[in-house]
Design brief:
The protein is an alpha/beta fold. Helix content is about 50%, strand content about 10%. One of its GO terms (molecular function) is alcohol dehydrogenase (NAD+) activity.
C-alpha cells in the first residue's frame, strides 16, 4: 500500500435543525463577537433572520457581511476582512454556498490580529503561514463541499480564478442542516448536486493522491447523491432527501480535499470566469464530455462506479460496456433535472471556444490530476462537443 495522508474538518454535525443552535455553538468556542459571511439572497431569508435572533439570547454580538457575490473577487474578500476587523470578530461563520464559505475561510486568516500576510501572498499551495480565527461553516447548498476542504477560490482580475490551498483553511466545525437548503430552486439544487457528484467521480479517478479513504468516501458520496438528487430536485420540501444530499456533498468534499479534482473543474472555471455561469452548472455542462475523453484511461474506475450511478438499470456486460453505460448516464443527469445541456443554450459563442481552451490550460494545478493528459487541442474538442 502506498503511503498517504488525510485531512478534514475537525468536527461535523449532521442534523436537521442544528443551525438553530449556531449562537450556542459559537459561544462554546469562547466567542463573544461573531461575523457571519453570506450573500444578499441568503441574508434575506426568514431562516437567516431567525438564526440571528439567537445571538442576543446567548449574549453574543453578531455582525453580518452580506455582500458576497458569485465567483467572489479579491476586493470582496478584502472588504469582508475589513468588516471583521472593524467588528473585532473572534469567530467567523460562513453561511451560504461555496462562495460565502470560501470568503469566510480567507477572512478567518486575514482578520486574525497576528496576520502579517497580504492576500496576494496566500495564492497557491501551502502559502498560508498565519494563524486564523475560529471558523464554522454552514452550507446552504449541497454541492461545493467547501465546509470540509482546505481550498478557497478567488476571481483575480476580470476572469481568472485562482486557488488558495492550505490546511489552515479547514474549518473547526461544519454544520449540515437540511432546513438551510429548503427553498433552494430546482435548477440550483440540480446544478449543485451534480457539482458534488463531479467531486466524487474526480476524486475516485484522481491520478496523483487517490487513497483508500478518499475512494471509500467518494463511493459513498456518489451513492447518497444518486439516491437523493432527483427527489431533492423534484420535491424540494423533502428534508430526508436534502439531508442525504448535504451529507453526500460533504463526503465528496472530504474525498476531493485529499484526492484533488481534475479536468472537469479545469474546463468549468473559464465558463464561470468569462460568462458568469454558476460553477455547478459549468461542471454539469462539461462533465459527460470530459468523462468520454477520459474513458480510455478511466474505464476500470467508471465500471466500478457504474452500479452506484445506475443501480438496477445497469445492464450486464464487460468492463467496457459498464463504463460506457456510466458515461451515457452522466450525459442524461442534467436534462432529467431540467438543466441545459449545451453551451449554446447559454448563448456562449462558438468563436470563444479556443479562448476557453487556452484559459483551461492555465489550470495545471487541476489538470495534473486527470487520468488522461489534456492538451489545448483536447480541451478545444471537449468544448466543441459540449457546444
Amino acid at each position: 500500500m502506498q503511503p498517504f495522508s488525510f485531512i478534514t474538518t475537525a468536527q461535523l454535525i449532521s442534523e436537521v435543525g442544528a443551525a438553530r443552535r449556531l449562537a450556542t455553538l459559537c459561544l462554546e468556542r469562547g466567542a463573544r463577537r461573531v461575523l457571519m459571511v453570506t450573500d444578499p439572497g441568503v441574508a434575506a431569508l426568514p431562516l437567516f433572520a431567525e438564526l440571528l435572533l439567537g445571538f442576543p439570547v446567548a449574549q453574543v454580538q453578531v455582525s453580518v457581511f452580506k455582500e458576497v457575490t458569485a465567483d467572489p473577487s479579491q476586493d470582496c474578500v478584502l472588504a469582508a476582512a475589513a468588516h471583521a476587523r472593524d467588528a473585532q470578530a473572534e469567530l467567523i461563520v460562513g453561511f451560504g454556498g461555496g462562495s460565502s464559505m470560501d470568503v469566510a475561510k480567507l477572512v478567518a486568516v486575514l482578520a486574525h490580529p497576528q496576520c502579517q500576510q497580504s492576500i496576494s501572498e496566500l495564492y497557491g499551495v501551502d502559502q498560508v503561514n498565519s494563524l486564523r480565527l475560529p471558523l464554522i461553516q454552514v452550507p446552504t447548498t449541497a454541492g461545493t463541499g467547501s465546509e470540509v476542504t482546505p481550498i478557497a477560490i478567488v476571481t483575480v482580475g476580470k476572469a481568472s480564478k485562482t486557488g488558495i490551498v492550505s490546511p489552515v483553511l479547514l474549518p473547526d466545525l461544519a454544520v449540515l442542516d437540511a432546513a438551510c437548503t429548503l427553498g433552494l430552486p430546482p435548477a440550483v439544487t440540480a446544478a449543485t448536486g451534480i457539482d458534488a457528484m463531479v467531486h466524487a467521480i474526480e476524486a475516485y479517478t484522481s491520478k496523483l493522491r487517490r487513497n483508500p479513504l478518499s475512494s471509500m468516501l467518494a463511493r459513498e458520496a456518489l451513492r447518497l447523491l444518486t439516491e437523493n438528487l432527483e427527489h431533492a430536485v423534484h420535491d424540494g420540501s423533502n428534508l430526508q432527501a436534502r439531508q442525504g444530499m448535504l451529507l453526500g456533498a460533504c463526503l465528496a468534499g472530504q474525498a476531493f480535499a485529499n484526492a484533488p479534482v481534475a479536468a472537469v473543474h479545469a474546463l468549468a472555471y473559464p465558463l464561470g470566469g468569462h460568462f458568469h455561469i454558476p460553477h455547478g452548472l459549468s461542471n454539469a455542462l462539461v462533465l459527460p464530455h470530459v468523462a468520454r475523453f477520459n474513458l480510455p484511461q478511466a474505464q476500470a474506475d467508471y465500471a466500478e462506479l457504474a452500479p452506484l450511478l445506475l443501480g438496477a438499470r445497469l445492464q450486464p456486460g464487460d468492463q467496457r460496456s459498464q463504463a460506457e453505460q456510466f458515461v451515457t448516464e452522466l450525459a442524461q443527469l442534467g436534462p432529467r433535472c431540467g438543466l441545459p445541456s449545451r453551451l449554446r443554450d447559454l448563448d456562449i459563442p462558438e468563436g470563444c471556444l479556443r479562448q476557453l481552451a487556452e484559459d483551461a490550460m492555465q489550470q495545471q494545478r487541476l489538470l495534473v490530476n486527470n487520468p488522461r493528459e489534456v492538451s489545448v487541442d483536447d480541451a478545444l474538442r471537449i468544448y466543441e462537443a459540449a457546444w
